[in-house]
Specification:
Blueprint: E1 2-5, E2 12-17, H1 23-39, E3 43-49, H2 57-70, E4 74-80, H3 84-96, E5 101-105, H4 110-118
Parallel strand pairs: 2-3, 3-4, 4-5
Antiparallel strand pairs: 1-2
């Protein structure tokens, strides 16, 4: 399940993902990001991953294509999760994509994550 999270800062895309991300759900997220990019030069991503179960193969391919197309337009990414492996993925992503500042936060620090992504 995917739910959009409203942020006061206009260029922040907030999403909550619970379970496995399907192709259709990824399309919803990508469409929302594309709309924001029509309005703002750069966006920031805030993602709460409760019981994240990965992505369908088609969603993975679409994610890669989206990332390649827009990697210069994403400034920051906050990953909120208590899953250790996802926190490690976020640390690796921060090193792999030098133009995108990526940080992982546990759910107990989601207040700080919201502040960080909005600054």
């Amino acid at each position: 399940m995917v739910e959009l999270i409203d942020f006061q800062r206009g260029n922040v895309v907030g999403i909550k993902i619970d379970g496995k991300l399907t192709e259709e759900e990824f399309d919803k997220i990508a469409s929302f990001c594309e709309d924001k990019l029509k309005e703002f030069q750069n966006i920031r991503l805030y993602a709460e991953l409760e019981s994240y179960g990965g992505m369908s193969p088609k969603a993975v391919l679409k994610d890669i294509k989206f990332g390649i197309k827009h990697w210069k337009q994403i400034e920051k990414e906050a990953i909120i999760t208590d899953q250790q492996w996802m926190q490690k993925v976020a640390e690796a992503a921060d090193k792999l994509f030098p133009n995108v500042e990526v940080k992982a936060f546990p759910f107990e620090e989601s207040k700080w994550a919201r502040k960080w992504i909005s600054e």
